[in-house]
């Protein structure tokens, strides 16, 4: 059960819900199985029908979260040779809640030898008055494959966003592959200036790690209309990985840009 902490003067714990959920997929020699689904707090985990030899799990929100003061953790492991896809049933909405304390949402992804993980959540929406610190830490074995998508929508319709801090760290065989930090919303500096988002309110990225990728591929600009958003596909240094970074006026437009970039990547691994 999640641990809910109150605001009483004698409480030693900060306010909010503290919850941790876990997913573990393995391979039994014939197919991928999911022997561990541990739901907790706002996380309700549900097995979906497999797609080919890939097991699938959906994360369904069981309550409004993350609210101010919440401490949420989701741990996903694809063991050796497992093939797993994890997504969310709906967008994650960061809300202010009964306290102005920040919320944290930490995702940990571990991918074993010759295993494959698709982490494909729906967008994260930062609403007025919310403060959320989100991290995603990925540990990959040398032969692991990863497809990771992150999308942020800054504010709902005609609404300014809250303060959103995100950090993505990826390690392969213990070596740093990517460490990226973004900060959006007031009082962050220049987040809506021309060097960052400008008028756009949707941002995202898609990371592909695959042994058949050519790290020598040149960067590619995907649609450079400044009013409709644009994306850049770039290889990471000395590793078989490609990163697509995009900004757009809407989350729907952002998804189209990322999907276009992914089509280029799939063509490169065919």
UniProtKB/TrEMBL annotation:
Main location: cytoplasm
Sections of the chain in a coiled coil: none
Compartments (UniProt record): Cytoplasm
GO annotation, cellular component aspect: cytoplasm
Keywords assigned by UniProt, alphabetized: Chaperone, Cytoplasm, Nickel insertion
Any GO molecular function: nickel cation binding
Pfam families xref list: UreD (PF01774)
UniProt cross-references to InterPro entries, sorted A to Z: UreD
HAMAP family given in the database record: UreD
Annotated family: Belongs to the UreD family.
Reported function: Required for maturation of urease via the functional incorporation of the urease nickel metallocenter.
Subunit structure: UreD, UreF and UreG form a complex that acts as a GTP-hydrolysis-dependent molecular chaperone, activating the urease apoprotein by helping to assemble the nickel containing metallocenter of UreC. The UreE protein probably delivers the nickel.
Name this polypeptide is given: Urease accessory protein UreD
Organism annotation: Streptomyces alfalfae
Gene that specifies this protein: ureD
């Amino acid at each position: 059960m999640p641990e809910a902490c109150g605001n009483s003067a004698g409480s030693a714990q900060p306010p909010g819900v503290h919850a941790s959920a876990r997913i573990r997929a393995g391979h039994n020699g014939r197919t991928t199985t999911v022997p561990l689904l541990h739901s907790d707090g706002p996380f309700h985990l549900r097995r979906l029908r497999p797609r080919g030899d890939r097991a699938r799990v959906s994360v369904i929100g069981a309550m409004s979260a993350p609210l101010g003061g919440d401490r949420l953790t989701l741990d996903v492991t694809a063991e050796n040779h497992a093939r797993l896809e994890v997504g969310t049933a709906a967008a994650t909405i960061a809300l202010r809640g009964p306290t102005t304390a920040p919320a944290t949402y930490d995702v940990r992804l571990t991918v074993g030898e010759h295993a494959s993980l698709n982490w494909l959540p729906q967008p994260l929406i930062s609403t007025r008055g919310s403060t959320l610190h989100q991290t995603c830490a990925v540990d990959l074995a040398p032969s692991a494959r990863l497809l990771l998508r992150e999308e942020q929508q800054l504010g709902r319709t005609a609404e300014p966003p809250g303060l959103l801090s995100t950090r993505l760290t990826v390690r392969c065989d213990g070596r740093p592959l990517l460490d990226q930090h973004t900060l959006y919303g007031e009082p962050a500096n220049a987040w809506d200036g021309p060097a960052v988002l400008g008028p756009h309110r949707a941002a995202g990225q898609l990371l592909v790690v695959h042994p058949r990728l050519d790290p020598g591929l040149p960067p590619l600009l995907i649609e450079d209309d400044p009013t409709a958003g644009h994306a850049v596909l770039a290889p990471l240094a000395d590793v078989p990985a490609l990163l697509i970074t995009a900004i757009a006026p809407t989350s729907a437009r952002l998804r189209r840009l990322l999907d276009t970039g992914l089509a280029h990547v799939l063509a490169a691994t065919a």
